[in-house]
Design a protein that fits this description.
The protein has six helices and 14 strands. It is α+β, with helices and mostly antiparallel strands. It has one domain.
Length: 316
Amino acid sequence: MAVNRLNIKASLKDRSVTIPIGQTFDEIGNEQLVRTWEEVELQDNINVIQDYETTRYAHKNNVVNLYSGGNNTISYSFEFWDSATNSYVDNFNVLGFLNKDLAKPKKAFTRSFFKFDFYDSPLRKEQKIMFTTIMPLNNCIRVETPVDEFEDPIEYFSQIASGILLPMYGVYVPTCVLGPLHGRSENYYIQWLKDRELTEIDEFYMSCKFFNAKTGKVSNMINEQPTLSQITNGEILSYPEWFYYKVKLFINTSNASTTNPKYRYVVTQFNETIMAIGGGTPRGTGLPGGTPSGAIPGTLQVPNAMPIKFYEYVSA
């Protein structure tokens, strides 16, 4: 038979099997992958060192203001709603402070302050608060005011006994002139990150609130005076038009003069039209509304002064 022609040989030796898979390894590029993996693991397990050093920005204002004694000053003015006269007034009396509380400041006054919040956007649904500054009320200027015989009889008769026929003392008013001078610099400078790789933001939108330590009340402030009908009708003013000033940071690399600081900021009044076209008149120059009655001698009223002005927001 044909089958008898086949010989099957049995063998106990190991057989080799050839598998067509490369067994050589190429290390090119793997070192970079290892480094990337190490960086990811480090970031996940430890705090990465970041440079949070800040730069001090000064206000740009070349007008000399004798009140503060130099250039680059910035002025603020605040008015509060007087329900008795249905008008805005530029004094602290309407908030419950007597002149004697303002001449010899009580704790309720010195513990009150203005709070400025700086946002990256004026749109409330998108904005993030970037930083906050505080302005104490003793940053405000004083004006000479007659002493009321019935309100402060001790001060009144003490001055009469000293031969002063018309007793007067200095009373704080809600007007501030800040500058790069000792005793006038609190809340003047803006501190912002020196390393721009952390964030490239150099425009902020500044809002203001007033904290009254005497009553515990917090008042929002707006950048424009509303009409009487808007107030009496309880009209709700819209964001962002009424609530912000725009603050822009500048770095001058070509001019190191003292009249134009290398690091400076400019404040402009904000509204939606200005935001669209990128314009706006700089604010913060001069004392508001003329030289205050009885102001300290040497005060200079700057023509066409445009301070940063805030009004108490009276809502329904």
